[in-house]
């Protein structure tokens, strides 16, 4: 959130600008509805840029790693079809590791192209492997996963208490958001006309964290930005005191 406002020079006004951040990582999918606005400081009475997390949604069991595994298994099946007399490739950890790496590469390439070749030299028992994989073929492997991507974004919108037309931008974050079918699900869930893809997913978190660390230090001088997170879970606080009774025992009483 900080990298977005600091490095894109967002002009904040008193009326909040609402942005939904869509994240599809390796292990999970999450969404956050964030507002950017100018809020008057109670002490200085000056307007201070403020980032407010309004709502979040997530699915901790939905990520792009599962896609890598499914594509890896598909490639293993193709290798077995080509070399049926060889020992089972799945019993070779080294070979499956190579296929896992190639599956990740193929998934990335097919996010921008209709087809590509998966190829690994000396994959198993000195046999080279090369097979053509299409985007349509890959999407069939993930068909049951795609509809699940809408839920985290709908949950984030509902927890923020806003309507979909109030969202001004949907910003993509995370390598999994490069897949066209996932982008389609995000557009359906948010009812937006377009998605914003200008954040560098490999650098955004690091740059935002660096700015947060610098602003917490007395050594660096940074632009003042207030960050207000959202608490999604109820909590209970109680205050107790220790009392020494007549028998010399220590008991605990609520204040």
Can you tell me about this structure?
This protein is of the alpha/beta class and 255 residues long. It contains seven helices and nine strands; from the N terminus they run H-E-E-E-H-H-E-E-H-H-E-H-H-E-E-E. It has a five-stranded mixed beta sheet. The longest helix has 19 residues, at 64-82. The mean pLDDT is 87.
What is the end-to-end distance? 40 Å
Low-confidence stretches: none
C-alpha Rg (nearest Å): 25 Å
Mean pLDDT: 87
**Dominant shape:** extended
Order of neighbouring strands in the sheet with most strands: 6-1-2-3-7
Please count the helical segments: 7
SSE series: HEEEHHEEHHEHHEEE
Which sheet architecture does the biggest sheet show? Answer: 5 strands, mixed
Instruction: Kindly estimate the percentage of residues that lie in beta strands according to DSSP.
Output: 25-35%
Structural class: alpha/beta
Kindly state the percentage of residues in helix: 25-40%
Let me know the number of strands: 9
């Amino acid at each position: 959130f900080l990298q977005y406002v600091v490095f894109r020079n967002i002009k904040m006004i008193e009326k909040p600008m609402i942005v939904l951040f869509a994240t599809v990582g390796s292990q999970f999918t999450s969404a956050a509805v964030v507002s950017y606005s100018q809020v008057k400081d109670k002490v200085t009475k000056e307007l201070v840029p403020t980032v407010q997390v309004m709502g979040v949604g997530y699915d901790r069991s939905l990520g792009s790693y599962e896609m890598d595994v499914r594509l890896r298994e598909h490639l293993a099946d193709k290798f077995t079809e080509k070399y049926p007399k060889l020992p089972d490739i799945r019993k070779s950890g080294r070979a499956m590791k190579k296929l896992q790496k190639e599956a990740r590469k193929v998934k990335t390439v097919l996010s921008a192209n209709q087809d590509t070749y998966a190829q690994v030299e000396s994959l198993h028992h000195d046999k080279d492997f090369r097979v053509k994989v299409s985007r349509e073929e890959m999407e069939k492997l993930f068909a049951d996963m795609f509809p699940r991507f809408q839920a985290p974004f709908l949950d984030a919108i509902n927890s923020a208490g806003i309507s979909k037309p109030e969202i001004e931008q949907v910003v993509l974050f995370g390598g999994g958001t490069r897949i066209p079918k996932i982008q389609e699900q995000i557009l359906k869930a948010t009812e937006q006309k377009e998605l914003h893809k200008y954040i560098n997913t490999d650098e955004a978190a690091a740059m935002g964290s660096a700015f947060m660390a610098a602003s917490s230090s007395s050594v660096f001088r940074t632009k003042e930005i207030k960050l207000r997170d959202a608490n999604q879970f109820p909590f209970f606080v109680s205050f107790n005191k220790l009392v020494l009774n007549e028998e010399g025992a220590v008991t605990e009483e609520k204040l």
